[in-house]
Specification:
heterodimer; A: Arp2/3 complex 21 kDa subunit ARPC3; 6 helices; 71% helix; 0% strand; globular; B: alpha+beta; 2 domains; 6-stranded antiparallel β-barrel; 12 strands; 35% helix; disordered C terminus
Amino acid sequence: MSHAGSPRWPVWLVLLASAALVSLPLPDSFTPFRPPWAAIAIIYWIMMWPRAVGIGSAWILGLLLDILQGDLLGQNAFSLSVIGYLTMRFHLQIRIFPLWQLTMTVFALLAINAFILFWIDGVAGHPSAGFARWTQVITGGILWPPVMTIMDRIRERLQRHGPTFP
Amino acid sequence: MALSRPDSDQRTFRNTGYGLRTVMLCILSVAIMALDHNNEHLKSIRSVLSAAVHPIRLLIDAPLSLGHWIGDNAATRSELLDENHRLKKKNLILNARLQRLVALEAENTRLRALLDSTAKVNGRVLIAEILSVDMNPFRHRITINKGSKDGIYVGQALIDADGIIGQVVRNQFFSAEALLITDVDHALPVEIVRNRLRTIAVGTGDLERLSLPFLPRNADVVDGDRLVTSGLGGTFPPGYPVGTIHEISSDSGEPFLNVSATPAAALNRIREVLLIWPEPDSAQRAADEDSAGAARPPEEAGTIAPQKNTAAGDLQ
């Protein structure tokens, strides 16, 4: 029954895919509605499988995102580490929340993420992004329930198969 | 419900070291940010990491490239004939213009010889393709598929068929990042074609608009004036189109006009860009122009060499 030996590389594939989704080209008018995929993925995986995904993974994913987006190196790494820590700290509580409460929590975590990015932008003297950064948080929160259903499928597959993942 | 058996291992997961690890990683992040912010100390690290994520970039770009490729291959014969026809016509017109250009270039060389200045030669160009990878959506940046392996350098100018696009700000091995002229962090020295009035065009964060905030209220600008690069500052070679002025307004009490311009290049529709290498001595000349045009120290005013290039600019 133990899945301690379940392979972790598929999780990394999901995390990399989330980073790729962040950089997927979309028309400019969609910018305010683009959800912060990487933050959502990190919250989900740390909450549901803290053995496989930890703060270190969050940091590395953040660094990857910084490179892909041409941001200040360390900006996303910092914010993802912080929300990774918060998720890890409360993962036992939040994963038994009813869905609406969980969605609210994710909302709050995404808002913290956006705030940290906003704050670092301010300190570094980069122009503020205006409203788009905050509307992205709202889209992310709204998309949480369906995203969670999909990720649950992936996780169940991974954990059921154990060490011999196909 | 899916939540029923999260992490179905019966023993609760207890990881005690993660608080300390978070603190360490946060300190590390702050250190990296400080180093990255100050004069790009981490250029080489960024370059290595960027090479590592290059496959991801290519992967993101792949569907769109495939789309283009399919579009190209699936074009019907009549479409191709049409396009061929159009291009032939365009080529004819361009050739006709080029004939005049040859004469003008000869004249220019003669006049420059009279002024004891070096002749301009055409710079080397390289075609690069923009990778369809969205960078931080709040900044106007693009990634191109040529990097330091092709001899690209930081500060190099990017143009398309209609005008200036931007400049290279980060140079990696396989790719490079460029800042568009409409980014809020970007400013470029321009002059008005009609009267060679020099000013600065600043990005606004809007792809369709540049702002010219430093024109005094009595400046001679009219709606429709065309802007070209002035070559001051040394980054952009002189004479390339930048945009057209489309709105002038003035608030009484403000010392400067509010002037905005439309960029000449179609910044949101480009796929291919040209990287230009300026003629070898242009950096030197631009530096001369800069010092002579901006401050003009008295000891230089007496010499001929630095002055000749600003002669035209000072006629206004």
